[in-house]
DNA sequence: GAGTTTGAAACT
DNA sequence: CAGTTTCAAACTC
């Protein structure tokens, strides 16, 4: 089954498919098209980790053997032991000069073919800070991981230690083949194998602000479908994990780890997720920087965080055999052997990239399913509750890094929980590892879990933030595109994903989240304000009347009746999507976009058609989006233009109201804070003695004084020769006086405290 | 909360 | 493409 069909690839939204500034990657090779692999086919997933300034190269060539393999760093002599992994046919090398990890899963047959074709098995070497992720291929089509070769001929890998200054690099996520890919200057992608390959690309340029743009290129090479998994011919996987690090701060630690037990079958989160941003903005790249703090320190994790917008690209591939294990051996046989490269510095890793697969395995698979998937997790959705379930995920949660120790380099790939990156405080792109995300809310589109080519929507128009997931019970076939948010919601057992833990995003502040306006709404608005629940009654939430559906989201906590906008009705939903797209290919695209070139103002893509509202009420989509009506609007009596006095008045009123609200909120907050502070200071005194204030004053001193008073009364009675009965009475009376004084003092103190608190 | 108004979406 | 109907959100009371 196709995880992502070629059609899908070709139809991916421009935001995703923007290939400018990326290398020209051969998206398909002769004979590749039409190749349909069985769901059980395994695909090799190469991963590249590249640290531009890194000095180490690690090269792994993996065979399909499951035997434990121990590799020795050719440079540093560091050995890497893999357990349950495919046999390493080539030494695991770490090049101090490049600090690169090269993982090459070599299919003997494939490698032979490659050699014969003049493309020897490639040992990926440093190629600047670039990572191209080519992941999703047509069903049956192998995924080709391609490594960019800067300024080099195809098949010619750069020499290790190439430390030349790199041009601004872009992080590129390539998903799906696309014929119109634009070549990237100075970067060439060489197909590793002559076998049928399909390259899907999702490219996004990193924000210009990033001093060191990163380009991630992952080319997945898969054997031809003819090769059965049982065949001894292993696929060749060559990949690099490119870690972006600041030029002055080369990454020093590479951590590779796998979940101890990835029982994918038990993970309901099986899905193919593509979560492009809803925003029209281009796919954002997750930049990873080396820790800025310790230049001398040599431990920098190699992050393979690829994000689209505010999303992190998760590439997982399940295999029957642990594909790659670096560093410590793992006793458990894992279906998925993701290699996670985490962000540097915080040791918070967010990216898991499964490297090894069996021959004919599809490139991206969801644990527990035969789907290979790429998941892009939005920042907002990343807050997801999804966590690894079962034993397989335990390791992930613990994020135990596998460390490959070398004299010069430590490699660690901690597996992190599928949590997410939520709100991340913006951070300068130039500092430290970064995840560039956009706050565009998740536009998500649900696709059928079953192969429905005939009704397959035009993915070009799918709302960003789309997540592909296998339908429940859908087995190996079909996929569904579901909202990432919804995925996290419905995904009781978390799946292994490349996502930053909440702690990472929150505490480390490594991530930078670019907040882009969504349909006229500020990032803050889009992120802080949840979508309003719909109230659809007749549309079944399968028409654009429904805001949820229109935004590509599942209905969640809505008040709708007879809702079909959910996974249970994915077939109907897909049909509805198809219908909408047939009617309007732009149906799921943001209505608010940039105006004409050169115009900075946003504008409605279609313009409004208001007649009675004067375009000054929320009936008007332009006004609702807080934008001016434009020439394309067909409104009558429009007052929503710059000089409109009515509009200005409304704006002033709105601003004033907003200011008042803010002031009130601030006042309440301040008052509450002050009260809390007072309580904090006074509570201990009052509450001590279990809140029974009088006893608070029965201190040792009070007791002693009381006793002295009683003794004094006793002496007085003795001196006056009072009878015993009278003496006892005098003592008791004195005791009563003492108690009264104590109580009186306590009551006075309590009233004082109360007055203070008020 | 019920009813009305409104304009986009859907339909013809 | 225009006119009409349907629909759900926005709005009013």
From TrEMBL:
PROSITE patterns: CRC (PS51634). GO terms for biological process: regulation of DNA-templated transcription. InterPro entries: CRC (IPR005172), Lin-54_fam (IPR028307), Tesmin/TSO1-like_CXC (IPR033467). The keyword Nucleus applies. It is found in: Nucleus. The keyword Amino-acid biosynthesis does not apply. It comes from the Eukaryota. Residues 530-643 form the CRC domain. This is Lin-54 DREAM MuvB core complex component. It comes from Oreochromis niloticus.
């Amino acid at each position: 089954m196709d995880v992502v069909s070629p059609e899908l690839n070709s139809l991916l939204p421009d935001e995703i498919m923007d290939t400018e500034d990326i290398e020209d990657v051969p998206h398909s090779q002769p004979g590749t098209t039409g190749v349909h692999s069985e769901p059980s086919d395994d695909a090799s997933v190469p991963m590249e980790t590249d640290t531009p300034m890194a000095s180490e190269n690690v090269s792994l060539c993996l065979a399909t053997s499951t035997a434990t393999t121990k590799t020795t760093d050719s440079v540093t002599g560091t050995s890497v032991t893999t357990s349950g992994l495919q046999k390493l046919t080539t030494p695991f090398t770490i090049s101090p000069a490049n600090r690169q990890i090269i993982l090459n899963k070599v299919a003997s047959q494939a490698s032979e073919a490659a050699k014969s074709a003049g493309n020897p098995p490639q040992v990926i070497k440093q190629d600047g800070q670039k990572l191209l992720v080519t992941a999703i291929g047509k069903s049956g089509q192998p995924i080709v991981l391609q490594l960019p070769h800067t300024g080099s001929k195809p098949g010619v890998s750069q020499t290790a230690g190439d430390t030349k200054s790199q041009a601004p690099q872009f992080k590129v996520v390539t998903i799906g083949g696309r014929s119109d890919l634009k070549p990237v200057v100075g970067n060439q992608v060489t197909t590793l194998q002559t076998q049928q390959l399909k390259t899907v690309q999702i490219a996004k340029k990193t924000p210009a602000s990033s001093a060191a743009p990163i380009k991630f290129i992952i080319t997945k090479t898969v054997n031809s479908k003819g090769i059965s998994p049982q065949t001894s011919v292993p696929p060749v996987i060559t990949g690099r994990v490119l870690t972006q690090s600041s030029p002055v701060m080369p990454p020093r630690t590479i951590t590779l780890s796998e979940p101890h037990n990835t029982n994918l079958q038990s993970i309901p989160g099986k899905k193919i997720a593509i979560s492009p941003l809803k925003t029209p903005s281009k796919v954002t790249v997750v930049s990873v920087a080396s820790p800025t703090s310790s230049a001398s320190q040599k431990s920098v994790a190699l992050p393979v965080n690829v994000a689209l917008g505010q999303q992190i690209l998760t590439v997982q591939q399940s295999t029957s055999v642990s594909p790659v294990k670096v560093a410590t051996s793992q006793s458990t046989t894992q279906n998925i052997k993701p290699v996670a490269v985490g962000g540097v510095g915080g040791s918070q890793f967010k990216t898991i990239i499964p490297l090894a697969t069996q021959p004919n395995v599809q490139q991206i698979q969801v644990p527990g399913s035969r789907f290979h998937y790429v998941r892009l997790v939005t920042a907002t959705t990343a807050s997801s509750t999804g966590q690894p379930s079962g034993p397989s995920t335990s390791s992930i949660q613990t994020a135990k890094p596998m460390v490959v120790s070398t004299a010069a380099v430590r490699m660690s790939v901690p597996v992190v929980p599928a949590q997410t990156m939520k709100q991340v405080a913006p951070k300068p792109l130039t500092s430290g590892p970064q995840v560039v995300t956009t706050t565009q809310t998740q536009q998500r589109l649900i696709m059928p879990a079953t192969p429905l080519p005939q009704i397959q929507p035009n993915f070009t128009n799918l709302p960003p933030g789309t997540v592909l997931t296998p339908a429940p019970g859908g087995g190996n076939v079909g996929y569904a595109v579901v909202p990432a948010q919804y995925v996290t919601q419905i995904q009781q057992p978390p799946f292994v994903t490349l996502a930053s833990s909440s702690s990472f995003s929150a505490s480390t502040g490594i991530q930078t989240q670019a907040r882009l306006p969504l349909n006229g709404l500020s990032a803050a608005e889009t992120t802080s304000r949840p979508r309003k629940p719909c109230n659809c009654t007749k549309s079944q939430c399968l028409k654009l009347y429904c805001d949820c559906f229109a935004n590509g989201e599942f209905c969640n906590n809505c008040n709708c009746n007879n809702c079909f906008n959910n996974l249970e009705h994915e077939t109907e939903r897909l049909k509805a999507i198809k219908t909408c797209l047939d009617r309007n290919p732009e149906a799921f695209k943001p209505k608010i976009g940039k105006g004409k070139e050169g115009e900075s103002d946003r504008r409605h893509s279609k313009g409004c058609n208001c007649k009675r509202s004067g375009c000054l009420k929320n009936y008007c989509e332009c006004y609702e989006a807080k934008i001016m009506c434009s020439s394309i609007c067909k409104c009558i009596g429009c007052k929503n233009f710059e000089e409109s006095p009515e509009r200005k008045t409304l704006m002033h009123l709105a601003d004033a109201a907003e200011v008042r609200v803010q002031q009130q909120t601030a006042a309440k907050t301040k008052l509450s804070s002050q009260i809390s502070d007072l309580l904090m200071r006074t509570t201990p005194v009052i509450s001590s003695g279990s809140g029974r204030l009088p006893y608070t004053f029965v201190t040792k001193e009070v007791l002693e004084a009381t006793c002295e008073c009683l003794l004094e009364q006793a002496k007085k009675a003795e001196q006056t020769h009072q009878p015993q009965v009278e003496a006892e009475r005098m003592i008791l009376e004195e005791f009563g006086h003492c108690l009264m004084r104590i109580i009186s003092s306590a009551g006075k103190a309590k009233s004082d405290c109360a007055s203070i608190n008020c």
